[in-house]
Known about the structure:
Blueprint: H1 2-22, H2 27-94
Amino acid sequence: MKSNFSGLVVALLAGAVLGVLMAPRSGKDTRKRITNDTDKFLKDLQDTITSGFDSIKSQYEDTRDNLASKYNDVVDTAASRSKSAIERTERNSKY
């Protein structure tokens, strides 16, 4: 799947470059357009990567918080049961 995606990206970029180079424009206009298109592509790629990292970070933080909450619940339950067991043992030892 990854190689298919890479091939698709390369084909799209090659097609775009060929399309721009074959267009009936002057060399100066073509170079300017290539520069602008490249800048736009890189900015879009940077935005996509940043968005992806933000999403991963958010998922990590949510998972961490959920695990911490579950851990605290388990510790509280264990502490409560231990306290109850100690209290029962103390009551039973008085009789």
